[in-house]
Design goal:
By secondary structure, this protein is α/β, with parallel strands linked by helices. It folds into two domains: 118 residues, no CATH class; 129 residues, Glutaredoxin (3-Layer(aba) Sandwich), CATH 3.40.30.10. It is built from nine helices and eleven strands. The strands form two sheets. A seven-stranded mixed sheet has the order 6-5-9-8-7-10-11, with helices on both faces. It has a four-stranded mixed sheet with strand order 1-3-4-2, with helices on one face. The longest helix has 31 residues.
Length: 277
């Protein structure tokens, strides 16, 4: 649910969607206009690793000139993003219409892309991210493994919190909305201090940086540090709130902060009460 460099790439990110390597297969590119433009430059780029590459809808790697031709001459250009694990590249496949990708990705992936496009038009990119995160995590168990580096020096796993309702806040030190809602999260801890509810805050900041932050800012949750990749796997947007039942199953998710920060208190109370039953 991820983050880039050049002006063109930033433009493409606004209309990107993601698929995994296993979804991608050779396909016919369906733009006559762009085909002629691409043929003007037949030189293929050298193999790239650890970088950003562009391909057409046949899966052919594009030179800068070929990519620029497609962007210049194609109407309604879109980019499908995927990660190439073998070469550690982020790939952008340029196309015009989702139907162009038939045979290139699975039919299920195409239908999901079409659904997300409709959702994006009605609710914006935030609605799409919310859907993706809920599809991935809602009613699923927390991952196993000892990867929670607590600021007291101990190491924990999510299984250590089974038996009680668990409320997780994903945040980081330079996240303004995360800091703004902390007083309301402190009120939440106070309200449930005598009940079987645990409150855990996880950040990709180092344990030492979190400890330094807490010396100046009160945040009453239990605190731990996780890897940036794991946090982004849960949510690429902060703050994020996950409500987990006593068996370790994620039951409800809130992504992002409400426009009126104080509303987060009531939203979380409603979800806690719902899942206490």
């Amino acid at each position: 649910m991820r983050i880039l460099q050049t002006t063109l790439i930033l433009f493409l990110i606004a209309c990107q969607s993601e698929v995994s390597d296993k979804d991608v297969k050779p396909a016919q590119f369906k733009s006559n206009t762009s085909q002629e433009s691409v043929k003007e430059d037949t030189q293929q780029p050298q193999k790239i690793t650890n970088g950003i590459v562009f391909k057409d809808a046949q899966g052919n790697m594009l030179t800068d000139a070929q990519k620029d031709s497609l962007v210049q001459y194609m109407d309604n250009i879109q980019a499908l993003r995927r990660y190439d694990q073998e070469n550690n590249n982020t790939e952008y496949i340029l196309f015009q219409d989702y139907e162009d990708l038939r045979g290139f990705v699975s039919d299920n992936a195409i239908e999901n892309l079409i659904e997300e496009n409709k959702l994006r038009r009605s609710g914006g990119q935030g609605a799409v991210l919310d859907k993706r995160i809920n599809d991935q995590w809602k009613d699923k168990p927390l991952p196993s493994g000892n990867f929670l580096q607590m600021i007291d020096g101990s190491v924990k796993s999510f299984s250590d919190y089974k038996g009680k309702l668990l409320v997780i806040n994903f945040w980081y030190i330079n996240c303004g909305p995360c800091i703004a809602e902390m007083p309301y999260l402190n009120d939440l801890v106070n309200q449930y201090q005598n009940e079987n509810v645990n409150f855990l805050a996880l950040s990709f900041d180092s344990s030492q940086d979190i400890k330094s932050f807490l010396e100046k800012t009160e945040f009453k949750y239990e605190h731990g540090s996780i890897s940036r990749s794991l946090m982004y796997d849960f949510t690429p947007v902060a703050p994020g709130h996950f409500i987990i039942d006593s068996e370790g199953i994620i039951r409800d998710i809130i992504i992002g902060a409400p426009r009126k920060t104080e509303l987060i208190f009531g939203k979380l109370v409603d979800l806690i009460e719902k899942n206490k039953k």
